[in-house]
């Protein structure tokens, strides 16, 4: 499609399903010439037919033509199905490219795949950038939050291009170089994990208002719209209000009542938790959110258990003896507290991952680029930026003076809501487990001393003492004296 006389493209996009097409259109709308290629040419033709007039596109029907239509160093973003397809396309591009050209994977790749691919490409003198892109279809088109990893040199070339298409908050584009090799995909993974927890806590708040206080979806939509004006101001709260207001055209019922209550998942939440387990970071909020989706989708088991398990003596909302307004406010504060814990845990995982892989991820930069474009964008992230501005080595976000001050006001309502949920028999796994995490973190003593005693008893696993150095074992099956080992 191109000859030497023709214009070359500053950037190329491979894979023209919705995300890829929208990203290509975003580049074109910012004045870049964009090379586009898709395995099946129909998608390329459709993009050009439907949106070709929006900017300068250079369509190709072979990888070789596509690569030839790119300005050097060539820069191509891959937006294909994660997994084998990504490897296939990377290799096709690498074969057609030259030394120093840059291949960017904008899909949701597992960060360990990205580490492997970056190494393979480095050995072939190609630059490989695994970039997390968040914002869904709309964000890809109008301004996503972008989390590129890979070699720092690639960022020098790629940075201005990505900055031109990213969301912008207070004049700052929502993109920055996250760190080497898999760093970008790692933080995107944890971003998605946090998203799972954030969605779940909103769901738990809905559940309490709906089946605790007996409110109708439209009324709850108004409550959420109101919440969206305060500390909870965020994209997810905003869209939840929209979902709750939606009426099903076919039945005239609230849409939420006709949607099957079985949540799907594509895997990034699960990856976040698996990785947290390996790193030994207690991301309990994200874990509960992933398990909540799994439980919701266990439809056969749920059907078998429905109405069959004893409930004990449940209370009604009236029994709680508080006004609807008080309840709504307590739920709002419990949501805020649980959300704070989920973010704090997510940032802990990022810190642990960064330490493990020596990535040098700056949590402040990350909070900055999550303020716009991505699904977890929220006013609250400004506070996280300030927290890391004040102390870049914060041991936990919960210990930041601002959040610590907030927690003074949140803790009592949070405890009450966990109690209400239990008394009403309504599941609130993230509200509940986040409070348990919080109480564990601040505890003077944990039952881990008992666990250590048990481990020493049955397996001679030894223990340490609080009052002196060394490792000890009690001769449990002997005279029960203690020895130093
Ligand atoms: P969506 O869910 O939005 O459709 P996806 O499934 O993540 O997106 O990705 C689909 C894209 O991956 C398509 O562009 C698809 O190309 P086709 O239109 O030809 O199917 C691309 N894709 C999938 N497997 C591929 C492969 N092995 N080689 C090249 N492209 C591939």
Tell me about this structure.
This protein is α/β, with parallel strands linked by helices and about 475 residues long. It folds into 3 domains: about 170 residues, Rossmann fold (3-Layer(aba) Sandwich), CATH 3.40.50; about 260 residues, N-(1-d-carboxylethyl)-l-norvaline Dehydrogenase, domain 2 (Orthogonal Bundle), CATH 1.10.1040; about 40 residues, Single alpha-helices involved in coiled-coils or other helix-helix interfaces (Up-down Bundle). Helix content is about 55%, strand content about 10%. It is built from 21 helices and 11 strands. The strands form 3 sheets. It has a 7-stranded mixed sheet with strand order 3-2-1-4-5-6-7, with helices on both faces. A two-stranded antiparallel ribbon has the order 8-9. It has a two-stranded antiparallel ribbon with strand order 10-11. Helix 12 packs across helix 13 and helix 16 packs across helix 20. The site of 2'-monophosphoadenosine-5'-diphosphate (ATR) has 14 residues, from helix 1 and helix 4. 2'-monophosphoadenosine-5'-diphosphate (ATR) binds next to helix 1 and helix 4.
């Amino acid at each position: 499609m191109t000859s030497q006389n023709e214009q070359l493209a500053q950037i190329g996009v491979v894979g023209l399903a919705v995300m890829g097409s929208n990203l290509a259109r975003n580049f074109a709308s910012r004045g870049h010439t964009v090379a586009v290629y898709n395995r099946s040419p129909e998608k390329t033709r459709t993009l050009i037919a439907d949106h070709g007039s929006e900017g300068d596109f250079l369509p190709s029907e072979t990888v070789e033509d596509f690569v030839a239509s790119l300005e050097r160093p060539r820069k191509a973003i891959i937006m294909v199905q994660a997994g084998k397809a990504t490897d296939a396309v990377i290799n096709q591009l690498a074969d057609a490219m030259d030394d120093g050209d840059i291949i960017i994977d904008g899909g949701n790749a597992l960060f360990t795949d990205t580490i492997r691919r970056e190494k393979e490409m480095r050995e072939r003198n190609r630059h490989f950038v695994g970039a997390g892109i968040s914002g869904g279809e709309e964000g890809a088109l109008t301004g996503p939050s972008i989390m590129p990893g890979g070699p720092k040199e690639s960022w020098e070339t790629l940075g201005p291009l990505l900055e031109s298409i990213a969301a912008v908050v207070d004049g700052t584009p929502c993109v920055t170089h996250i760190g080497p090799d898999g760093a970008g995909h790692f933080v995107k993974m944890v971003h998605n994990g946090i998203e799972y927890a954030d969605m779940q806590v909103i769901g738990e708040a809905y559940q309490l208002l709906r089946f605790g206080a007996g409110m109708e979806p439209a009324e709850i939509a108004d409550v959420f719209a109101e919440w969206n004006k305060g500390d909870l101001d965020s994209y997810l709260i905003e869209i939840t209000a929209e979902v709750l207001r939606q009426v099903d055209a076919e039945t005239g019922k609230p849409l939420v009542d006709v949607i099957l209550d079985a949540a799907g998942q594509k895997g990034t939440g699960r990856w976040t938790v698996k990785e947290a387990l390996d790193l030994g970071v207690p991301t309990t909020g994200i874990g509960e959110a992933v398990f909540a989706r799994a439980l919701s989708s266990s439809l056969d088991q749920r059907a078998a258990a429905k109405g069959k398990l004893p409930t004990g003596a449940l209370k009604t909302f009236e029994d709680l003896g508080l006004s609807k307004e008080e309840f709504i406010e307590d739920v709002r504060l419990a949501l805020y507290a649980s959300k704070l814990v989920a973010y704090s845990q997510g940032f802990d995982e990022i810190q642990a991952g960064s330490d493990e892989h020596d990535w040098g991820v700056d949590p402040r930069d990350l909070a900055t680029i999550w303020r716009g474009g991505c699904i977890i964008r929220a006013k609250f992230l400004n506070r996280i930026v300030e927290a890391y501005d004040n102390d870049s080595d914060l041991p936990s976000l919960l210990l930041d003076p601002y959040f610590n001050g907030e927690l003074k006001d949140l803790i009592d309502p949070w405890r009450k809501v966990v109690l209400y949920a239990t008394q009403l028999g309504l599941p609130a796994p993230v509200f509940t487990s986040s409070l348990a995490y919080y109480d564990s973190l601040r505890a003077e003593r944990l039952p881990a001393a008992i666990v250590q005693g048990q481990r020493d008893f049955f397996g001679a696993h030894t223990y340490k003492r609080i009052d002196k150095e060394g490792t000890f074992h009690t001769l449990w099956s002997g005279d029960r004296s203690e020895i130093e080992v």
